[in-house]
Amino acid sequence: MLNRIARSSSKLPRSPVTATKPNGRLMSSTSDLQAFGERHVTKGLGRITPGVMTKGQGSYVEFQDGRKMLDFTCGIGVTNLGHSHPKVSKAAAEQCMNIVHAQCSIAFHEPYLRLIEKLLPVMPHPSLDSFFFWNSGSEAVEAALKMARIITGRQNIISMQGAYHGRTMGAMGVTKSKTIYSEGVAPLMPGVFSIPFPFWHQQAAPPETPTSVLTTQSLYQLHLLLSQQTSPSDTAAIIVEPVIGEGGYVPAPKEFLQGLREVCDKHGILLIMDEVQSGFGRTGTWFAIEESGVRPDILVMAKGLANGFPLSGVVSRKELTDKLKPGSMGGTYAGNAVACAAAVAVADAIKEEKILDNVNERSNELFSSLLSLQSDSALAPYILDIRGRGLMVAVEFASSENPGAIYDPTAVAITTKIPKGIASRVAKKCIEKGMLLLTTSVYEVVRFIPPLNISKEDMAKGCKVFEESVREVLKEAENEQ
Ligand SMILES: Cc1ncc(COP(=O)(O)O)c(C=O)c1O
Fold this sequence. Notes:
Layout: H1 2-10, H2 30-40, E1 53-57, E2 60-63, E3 68-71, H3 74-77, H4 86-98, H5 110-119, E4 130-134, H6 137-152, E5 156-161, H7 169-173, E6 192-196, H8 211-228, E7 235-240, E8 243-244, E9 250-251, H9 254-267, E10 270-274, E11 298-301, E12 312-316, H10 318-321, H11 337-352, H12 355-374, E13 383-389, E14 392-397, H13 409-412, H14 422-432, E15 435-436, E16 438-440, E17 445-448, H15 456-480
Parallel strand pairs: 3-15, 5-6, 5-7, 7-10, 10-11
Antiparallel strand pairs: 1-2, 2-3, 4-12, 8-9, 11-12, 13-14, 14-17, 16-17
Helix pairs in contact: 4-11, 5-11, 8-9, 12-15, 14-15
The protein binds pyridoxal-5'-phosphate.
GO molecular function: identical protein binding; pyridoxal phosphate binding; transaminase activity
Organism: Tetrapyrgos nigripes
Protein name: Acetylornithine aminotransferase
């Protein structure tokens, strides 16, 4: 049998690029590694820039080819305290020398419990007192959905159009931001319904539409959904991001979140707040939901929680989690001791270094720089919207090619020639100029996710790079016509 396997595998085509050069030496140049990666890393993974990252320090990432880039992505909202924060790295390193894998179903470990001790006082509601840690945001969303079904004994879940909750099967089932995440994968998790998020695009309305109007429309659709498609008695949970991320960086109006709470209270539906991206100081408060005063039944967090160590958390109230049978939750690496020790240091650093104050100060500078671009008559026709909260900020460019453009008043009103794919072109230009920047959503949106402790100087630098990039892209597009 073994011989047969050996013989048949020897017929498999051999890879043209190997980990060592023909002279037996390890690959060292960027082009060698780039080619190796392109050959051997799945095509299913996209990247915004070629190259090999070698170092991350504070607000900067260094590449093997010598580039040093200002990081306005934070690795998609993760390294909120900057790369390799000394206090966080030290805590992780020390934990590595004590115990790395203190498996959570064998016994408690101290960093897990210390982390809960740190988190309890910063929870957006005192009822949130029962924790489970996992590795990624998607896994935490899976856990939240599973808990909601077990606790309520109901199956259906309502999510938001434009929502992103992850790429695993359940999380993907409630994700409604882009079809790429589930294309070709159906059947998706059954029992999922969605309503439009109160985002003007989703209601074919102009950006200046009052949030009260958007809220009414969305809550109206929720009531309709509960009468026409999923009975409240079959509905386990509503899952929502307080600032929708992959859907375009749109803060939910507080009246909308309060409306969801009322509906949940009336029908015994659980409200799951996905703060994977918006949590842990990103919006200027520990959690974005705080502003609305709304109490989540289940809160999901990840990303900034451990500043780059894989860690996510699901928090609920004991009265609910007591309904779970021991063994129904768990995971080999869940709540890893090194990641928990790092997260304890993150929580301390946020307080000691007055990170939330910095978020609010730098946020004002970012908004005022972006608004000044919008008030420049040469740029105004291209900038449709500037939005966000804290350091979770987006610029949406005008486009006549958005989905449903013929029904979209913003697209219909366009008289200026807008470069195709303008958001990606601007992000690419920023990268050429030494700043990492991401796009988001199915619209022409770039998102700013700088470190929460970014300096005034680096914020000014980032704003300058962005302005120059926008102007250059527009100039180049003009010359192309
Ligand atoms: C709001 C939200 N939920 C869930 C996830 C999934 O997290 P992960 O990529 O860690 O699985 C993300 C990731 O971007 C997210 O932004």
